[in-house]
Structure formats: structure tokens, C-alpha cells
């Protein structure tokens, strides 16, 4: 099945990565968040930081998820420091909805660095 038509928890690619049913290069893991290398990197550093809880997109966030989101960005910040990309700069991207390019419907923050970035983004 194409990733683009995966939407539910039951057949979620990233839930399978969390469960280690699909292999990935995990660079950080705790009970609330994991981070792994994007299989199709768009920059020399391209990590995906995701909540362990299945949340389909930013649009599905509920007030009770506030602590999860705070933690997610704390992990992003920590990884940027660990990867040594704070000085150089890095871009974080969350695609929300198909029209914005979201293809996997489990919330994820792209963490990109190691090349110049344009603004506005394409
Ligand atoms: P989106 O397009 O939803 O914002 O981002 C989905 C990202 O997941 C893409 O950058 C894509 O390369 C990545 N991706 C898709 N399938 C896999 C996979 O099986 N393993 C890993 N590590 N990344 C994946
Ligand atoms: Zn999921």
C-alpha cells in the first residue's frame, strides 16, 4: 500500500517504525518521542522526530496533547545541539495535509540541515 493512502493507526508506517516492525536508523528514543533518519534525505542532515502516540497530523492535536508537543520540540532542540548544527542553522518543517505535501499521516517534524535553504520554501 502506498504511504500516501495510509491514514489510520492500524496501518501506520511510523507506528510500525516505533514498534520496530519496520527497520529504521533511530537516533533518539524515549517513552514519548523517537527520531530517525529519513529514508529519502533532502539534506545532509534529515531527521524525522515523531510522537510515540499516533496523532495523524497537526490538525488532529487536542489540548491534552500539549505536553507531547512541548516534548517533541525539546527533542528537536536537543538533536540539533547533538548534531552540531545550531551554529550553521537548521530548518524544521511540518507538512499538514496532502495539499501541503504530507504523505505519512502520523505527525512528524522534519529536521533538516547541512545545505542552504531558500525562503520562501517551495
Ligand atoms: P511528509 O511528506 O509526510 O511530510 O514526510 C514523510 C517522510 O517520511 C518523507 O520525507 C519520506 O522520505 C519519509 N519516509 C517515508 N517512508 C519512510 C520509511 O519507511 N522510513 C523512513 N525512515 N522514512 C520514510
Ligand atoms: Zn502512527
Report on the architecture of this protein.
The protein is α+β, with helices and mostly antiparallel strands. The chain has a single domain (3-113), classed as HIT-like (HIT family, subunit A). It is built from two helices and five strands. It has helices spanning 13-18, 66-82, and strands at 26-29, 33-37, 45-51, 91-93, 109-113. The protein has a five-stranded antiparallel beta sheet with strand order 1-2-3-5-4, with helices on one face. β2 (33-37) and β3 form a beta hairpin. It is globular and about 35 Å long. It binds guanosine-5'-monophosphate (5GP) and zinc ion. Residues 3, 13, 22, 24, 36-40, 48, 95, 101-104 line the site of guanosine-5'-monophosphate (5GP). Residues 3, 13, 22, 24, 36-40, 48, 95, 101-104 line the site of guanosine-5'-monophosphate.
Which molecules are bound besides the chains?
guanosine-5'-monophosphate, zinc ion
Q: How many beta-strand segments? A: 5
Helix and strand run:
HEEEHEE
- Spatial strand sequence of the major β-sheet: 1-2-3-5-4
Rg from alpha-carbon coordinates: 14 Å
Quaternary structure of the protein: single chain
Q: What's the average pLDDT? A: 94
CATH architecture label name: 2-Layer Sandwich
- Give the name of the CATH superfamily: HIT-like
Which structural class do the helices and strands define? alpha+beta
Amino acid at each position: 500500500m502506498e504511504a500516501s493512502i495510509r491514514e489510520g493507526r492500524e496501518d501506520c508506517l511510523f507506528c510500525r517504525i516505533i514498534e520496530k516492525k519496520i527497520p529504521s536508523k533511530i537516533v533518539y528514543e524515549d517513552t514519548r518521542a523517537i527520531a530517525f533518519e529519513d529514508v529519502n534525505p533532502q539534506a545532509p542532515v534529515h531527521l524525522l522526530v515523531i510522537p510515540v502516540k499516533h496523532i495523524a497530523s497537526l490538525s488532529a492535536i487536542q489540548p491534552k496533547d500539549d505536553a507531547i508537543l512541548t516534548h517533541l520540540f525539546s527533542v528537536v532542540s536537543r538533536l540539533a545541539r547533538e548534531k552540531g548544527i545550531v551554529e550553521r542553522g537548521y530548518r524544521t518543517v511540518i507538512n499538514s495535509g496532502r495539499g501541503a505535501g504530507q504523505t505519512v499521516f502520523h505527525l512528524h517534524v522534519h529536521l533538516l540541515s547541512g545545505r542552504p535553504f531558500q525562503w520562501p520554501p517551495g
